[in-house]
UniProtKB/TrEMBL annotation:
Residues 1-55 are annotated as: Disordered. Residues 34-43 have a biased composition (Basic residues). Residues 1-11 have a biased composition (Gly residues). It comes from the Eukaryota. Residues 17-31 have a biased composition (Basic and acidic residues). This is Cyclin delta-3. Residues 44-55 have a biased composition (Polar residues).
Length: 461
């Protein structure tokens, strides 16, 4: 089996490959009618009298949004308030209203007994302890002392982004470097990339060997031109969509840790950028007791924080809100280009006993770059119920015979080269053997006419 059927690799990604998400699956996942009374995670809103029955095949999010316009301001009973915890997602009020409304409508009209029965049905299939994001295999502690640079010369990172990575440097990159150094991390050369995925620009390394970096997409998704990531052996974990968002989060967390004492070092390091992003004491004055809720409302949407909110819903026995929040996490505009939200959804669905849906979610995740999964490829392939057929398919595509077949099908040579580069990155992520593929990946980008990307891929100190 080579995976060339409906579950094969139509791919449309920001790595410039011709990856294409399974649109039929997305419509099914977001538009499927669900029944809370049978243990499903959202009420069968498509049967609501407020909804035109001719639109039952549409996205559940769209349907719920239409109902929210009518119902969001309605007074709610104490029962509804308990199941509709105030969730503030990002600085965008539309996201806040959407997720609150999704949870409210998912339990609207249900009695306490019905809600308890629904949670019990889900709990029966909920196996194993739930935690914050699963730790991926960390990088081994790297010996980078020869590449350590002082913060006074951190302008080298700005020059590297501009001259080598051929991108616009983030406005407050120097301030982020100072903040990272102030909190105890070692600033490292942007060219110290041995053993790392070749799309990153290293910034700092902590005592455990974890590297914070910028991600330089071959083609950046909208709103994520240069996200901040943690580099792991098999890929990256998204820390923030941009430099400003990451500085903002660090300052808020620092302020929350020192509510009763003065600690100005990080705020001083952030200089004018910090003053623009966050006013000291705002967390305490907001009277939002939960730090994660403050981050989601005032700073931005972060994968680890959103996953943590799902976990807390499960721990509190509110499985309906957990599943609705998990589906919200998969909205394509939240984390474009990343497969992690679909991996997380697959893990949750599997643990509540919904194996078929978990399989579908895992297969969608594997249509994203494998280095964005946030875990081992093998873990996701297992949920997808795939053995090695996808790896075999990719290995076929990057052969000379595979390239000739694509040419016969009318695919442009430049696109074939871009696809091969993306496939090679996927293969390298399986074992974290980036160095084995770097030279050929650079050649592919050069063949596609992306000479600056090819130069960046090959650059090393």
């Amino acid at each position: 089996m080579n995976g060339k059927g409906s579950n094969g690799f139509g791919r449309n990604g920001f790595d410039n490959s011709n990856r294409k998400m399974d649109e039929d699956y997305n419509k099914d996942m977001l538009g499927r009618k669900n029944n809370v009374k049978n243990g499903r995670h959202a009420k069968n809103v498509t049967s609501s009298g407020n909804i035109d029955s001719s639109r039952v095949s549409g996205s559940r999010f769209n349907i719920l949004n239409e109902e929210m316009e009518v119902n969001l301001n309605e007074g709610s009973s104490q029962q509804k308030a308990n199941s509709s915890e105030e969730i503030a997602i990002g600085a965008n009020s539309e996201n806040v209203c959407e997720l609150e409304g999704l949870i409210r409508l998912s339990t609207r009209g249900l009695s306490k007994t019905e809600r308890d029965n629904n949670n019990n049905n889900m709990k029966m299939g909920f196996v194993g302890a739930m935690h914050r994001p699963p730790p991926a295999t960390p990088l081994p502690l790297r010996h980078v002392r020869a590449s350590v640079i002082s913060c006074s010369s951190s302008s080298g990172h700005v020059s590297f982004v501009k001259d080598v990575a051929a991108a616009n440097p983030p406005a407050h990159l120097n301030q982020l470097l100072k903040v990272l150094q102030t909190r105890g991390e070692t600033i490292i050369s942007p060219g110290s990339r041995q053993g790392l995925i070749p799309l990153v620009i290293p910034l700092s390394e902590n005592l455990s060997g974890a590297v914070t970096a910028l991600l330089r997409w071959p083609t950046a998704p909208p709103g994520m031109e240069m996200p901040v990531v943690e580099v792991r052996k098999h890929g990256v974990w998204l820390l923030a969509k941009n430099v400003d968002q990451y500085i903002h989060r660090i300052l808020v967390e620092e302020d929350a840790r020192h509510l009763k004492e003065s600690n100005s070092e990080l705020f001083h390091a952030s200089s004018e950028a910090g003053k623009k992003l966050y006013r000291r004491g705002d967390f305490a004055e907001s009277q939002i007791t939960n730090l994660d809720s403050y981050l989601l409302k005032k700073v931005g949407i972060f994968p680890d924080v959103l996953e943590g909110k799902v976990m807390r819903h499960f721990e509190e026995g509110d499985h309906v809100s957990a599943m609705v929040t998990g589906e919200f996490y998969m909205k394509k505009e939240l984390f474009p280009g990343f497969g992690r939200p679909f991996v997380f959804s697959a893990e949750i669905l599997l643990r509540v006993g919904r194996t078929s849906e978990a399989k579908d979610a895992a297969r969608v995740a594997l249509k994203s770059p494998w280095w964005t999964l946030g875990c081992l490829y093998q873990d996701v392939a297992s949920i997808a119920q795939w053995d090695d057929e996808q790896i075999e398919y990719i290995n076929e595509k990057v052969t000379e015979e595979g390239r000739r077949e694509d040419l016969k099908k009318g695919k442009a040579p430049a696109q074939i080269a871009l696809d091969e580069a993306a496939f090679l990155l996927d293969l390298a992520s399986i074992e974290g053997t980036w160095a084995d593929y770097t030279e050929r990946i650079a050649e592919c980008y050069k063949e596609a006419g992306l000479n600056e990307i090819a130069k960046f891929i090959m650059y090393r100190d």
